[in-house]
Design a protein that fits this description.
Helices cover 33% and strands 21% of the residues. The chain is α/β, with parallel strands linked by helices and 235 residues long.
């Protein structure tokens, strides 16, 4: 199966993987976290109706509803829209407020075109937001996914941003909706990995997200186990 067909199969089967309620909860938490981190680390608050977010590798655009609730114009591109390793993003220069790519970078042979195009279309004060596995915490599982090609560490993701001229870079643990102290300090990746031993959902071999009684009994402060990175940078 080609990478393109693999991605399509994942998107088309998502409804069987998790209910709409769980999908919406995941999406809402994702979007909430983006704005929380932008507010804390960059003092950036979006309060008008002229903002644009571009989601590269958007799948079924499950984040769209929650960006639109924040008065953002959401634009999503996936495999049928462009090949981000070589194509231009079909938008004008300096026209976009936020570029996001979630679970995409590790599936690319090279990040060059993605970052070049992101910088081109971002406004002078715009942000790029990346989520990708943290090789230092996920090396045992990384290549279990057949489309994973290139792993990143906190330092290599930072260097990739720097090479492409981004500034004010923050590389953070891939946590959602957690207190800010989890995202800070020299041991932030260890806190995300060891202090949060449980995932929010179970993901069975049958590939079904569930919230069962066992998960409900686990205190919220023990949930959120992360083996991923969030990278944020300003143009």
């Amino acid at each position: 199966m080609s990478d393109k067909n693999y991605f399509k199969n994942i998107v088309e089967s998502r409804n069987s993987l998790r209910s709409q309620k769980i999908s919406d909860e995941l999406a809402e938490r994702e979007v909430f976290t983006i704005f929380k981190l932008l507010r804390y680390f960059y003092n950036k608050i979006y309060d008008d109706q002229k903002n644009i977010v571009v989601d590269i590798g958007c799948g079924d655009k499950y984040l769209k509803k929650f960006f639109e609730k924040r008065n953002f114009n959401y634009i999503g591109y996936d495999l049928d829209d462009l090949d981000i390793e070589k194509d231009k993003i079909p938008l004008e220069d300096n026209s976009v407020d936020i570029i996001i790519n979630i679970g995409l970078l590790e599936a690319l042979q090279t990040y060059n075109n993605l970052f070049i195009e992101a910088k081109r279309v971002l406004k002078p004060d715009g942000f790029i937001y990346t989520i990708t596995p943290n090789w230092l915490k996920d090396y045992k599982n990384f290549y279990n996914n057949p489309i994973h090609k290139k792993p990143y560490t906190p330092n290599s993701l930072k260097q990739a941003y720097l090479i492409n001229g981004f500034k004010e870079i923050n590389i953070l643990p891939g946590l959602r909706c957690k207190p800010i102290w989890y995202y800070k300090g020299a041991l932030k990746f260890e806190k995300a990995f060891y202090l949060l031993p449980f995932n929010r959902y179970e993901f069975f071999e049958k590939r079904i997200y569930t919230k069962n009684l066992w998960r409900k009994l686990i205190p919220e402060f023990l949930k959120g186990h992360s083996r991923s990175l969030i990278g944020i940078a300003r143009k």
